[in-house]
Amino acid sequence: MSFIITGLSGHPFSHLYGLNDDELHNQGAIRVSVDQYPSFPDRITLRDIPVGETALLLNHTYLDTESPYKGSHAIFIWEGQWQAGIYQNVLPEVMKNRILSLRGFNSRDMLIEATLAQPGEAKEQILSLLGNDKVAFILAHNAKQGCFSCRIDRG
């Protein structure tokens, strides 16, 4: 079974790149200097942001739907990144060493199955969820902080 994991496009965030701290605050975002690795997972490239770079912390609606599961949460993005990471049948860096909540949704954006994946278990759990024909896509979240990580679609 094939799957594709896709990061967010940087284009919807480009208006924030280069703003000063007050301007970011007015947009509901803050700039953070990355001082630990791995610690700041970028939702665009799906890599951990290197020390010395800047991250933007902002609220993101990861499931914009009429479903009761509409959701948003704080995420980090790597300031200045544009190109979404795309990973077919492999896990991106940000999914390899974190405990993940994997949530399988049907085509009507209703949650139908969910599981936790310990480090090293994510690929196996993704394939298990996709083994359910009713699962149209999976949303991955970092289990400890609860923040959205990425979307997983059938390949």
Q: Can you describe this structure?
A:
The chain has three helices and nine strands; from the N terminus they run βαββββαββαββ. The protein is mainly beta and 155 residues long. It has one domain (3-154). The strands form two sheets. The chain has a six-stranded antiparallel beta sheet, covered by helices on one side. It has a three-stranded antiparallel beta sheet with strand order 2-3-4. Strand 3 (54-63) and strand 4 (71-78) form a beta hairpin. The radius of gyration is 15 Å and the shape is globular. The mean pLDDT is 97.
Query: How many distinct folded domains?
Result: 1
Kindly report the average pLDDT value: 97
What are the low-pLDDT stretches, counting only 5+ consecutive residues below 50? none
Structural class: mainly beta
Strand content: 35-45%
SSE arrangement, N to C: EHEEEEHEEHEE
Spatial strand order of the main sheet: 5-1-9-8-6-7
Q: Give the oligomer, counting copies of the same chain as homo and different chains as hetero.
A: single chain
Number of strands: 9
| Helical run tally | 3
Largest sheet: 6 strands, antiparallel
Residues in helix, %: 10-25%
Give the termini separation: 8 Å
What integer value in Å does the Rg equal? 15 Å
Query: What's the shape?
Result: globular
Can you summarize this structure?
By secondary structure, the protein is mainly β. Helix content is 12%, strand content 35%.
